[in-house]
Amino acid sequence: MSLIWFDGGLQAGPIALSAHDRGLTLGDGVFETILVCDKKAIWREDHVARLQAAASALGLSVPLADINAAISALSEQGDGYHVLRLTLTRGVAARGLAVPGLSPSLVATLDPFDPELMFQPVTLVTSFVRRNEFSPSSRMKTLSYVDNILAAREAARSGSDDALMLNSRGHVCCTTIANVFVLRNGQLKTPPLKDGVLPGLARQKLISAFKVSEISLLPADLLQADAVFTTNSLRLIRSVTALDGQALSQADLSVQKAALRAVM
Amino acid sequence: MSLIWFDGGLQAGPIALSAHDRGLTLGDGVFETILVCDKKAIWREDHVARLQAAASALGLSVPLADINAAISALSEQGDGYHVLRLTLTRGVAARGLAVPGLSPSLVATLDPFDPELMFQPVTLVTSFVRRNEFSPSSRMKTLSYVDNILAAREAARSGSDDALMLNSRGHVCCTTIANVFVLRNGQLKTPPLKDGVLPGLARQKLISAFKVSEISLLPADLLQADAVFTTNSLRLIRSVTALDGQALSQADLSVQKAALRAVM
């Protein structure tokens, strides 16, 4: 069962959305997906802060009271594991790409989440779709997600679980849904945001907990690592077992997994 | 007044959309904007063919009968000048980026269009947001339009009418809403699609009517041209009068304008 927050209250079923809402017509908005564990919205403040930062960069106004009311009302219904999604759009406008301040639309949903998906190993294929480090949107969770969708479809076609995305210079960025870390000789490395990397919250938690070098990586760095893993807010840490069909080295990641669990 | 086609029929007011429709949540879909002139949908077959091509590239199924019914029903209401927009999304899905075949959602709208906007001169500013020629989405009208929005906002802030977008190598692509042509020594040039260029219909009409070189262009090529103009399906041909505050040469474009008018 899915629970919906729209127009300031809980509801079931479809929402009454304007056909001119720019979330629908232009992917003009931002989103967050929050893990809810026994009614607790994990990393709630971090998610709201990231949403605010991305909204500000796009020039969207942020209805903070409505956002907090949505998170509270939905997570209150979240026994066991759920995923709470916040979708904030610029709102309804007449035609034109650059329009002055609008009243934003907030849609939030609560859906069951299978905890088996956490810590699950993952196989990657390198996508032919590159990330665009020349746009600030590569560092935001905007609603314009079609490049990630194209890459995810490519992964599915190739029989891999997810796609590794490079930027225009061939540097490693992230997967369609997660950040990438390599472990080599006891040292953790992850690509810097400027390479076109989403500022993941689990990524940030690991950077706070360990000494991590934020440094540009090439696909060869993954093949030569002692371990490669991905991080995100829902599936947490996943060992990468293969890249483009080539098996990767599997060092123990229990310390990293425990550190992430400890801050949830 | 705005007319809406949704769920197979005409309606007014908001649409009853699922909060999980992937057009809203992920910009997962494609669109077209069609000029309607005295009930005639201009370049109707070309717009539908381009929508179909982009939808196929994304793996969306295309409800052709519904699309044609929407165009017919809406353009029938279009005395004078209107813009008909088709928005086709992948439909409703549970979580996950790569999902198997869904039933797509079609939303179409008809809104008045001010014919004064046609052939209006335009000033451009070079955007710091680049187009991503490494993604097929740079050659499609997908709902994931946030990079164009960022560039259009930048243009508005700088007091320009539109933004010139380059690709990751610094080659000229197009503006946020239009293709770019240069005229020099009687010869027309426009960037090739592979540079990350939207396959505009007015662009294609000019290529059919004249000898046009599809060749990569640098910003300097615009500064040295006898004339620079933009094309799209609604505003048709617009003389570019300035780039980054520098006035551009203004050769006569009446032949090109007449040729486009002749095929409408």
Question: Could you characterize what this model shows?
Answer:
The structure is a homodimer of 264-residue chains. By secondary structure, chain A is an alpha+beta fold. Chain A contains 7 helices and 16 strands. The first copy, chain A, has helices at 22-26, 44-58, 64-75, 146-157, 201-209, 219-223, 254-262; strands spanning 3-6, 9-11, 15-17, 29-37, 40-41, 81-89, 105-112, 122-126, 162-166, 172-175, 179-184, 187-190, 212-214, 227-232, 236-243, 246-247. In chain A, the strands form 2 sheets. In chain A, strands 8, 9, 10, 11, 12, 13, 14, 15 and 16 form a 9-stranded mixed beta sheet that branches. A 6-stranded antiparallel beta sheet of chain A has the order 2-1-7-6-4-5. The longest helix of chain A has 15 residues, at 44-58. Chain A is globular. The two termini of chain A are 25 Å apart. The mean pLDDT of chain A is 96. Strand 3 of chain A pairs antiparallel with strand 3 of chain B, so a sheet runs across the interface.
Task: Please tag this protein with its features.
homodimer; 264 residues; alpha+beta; six-stranded antiparallel β-sheet; 25% helix
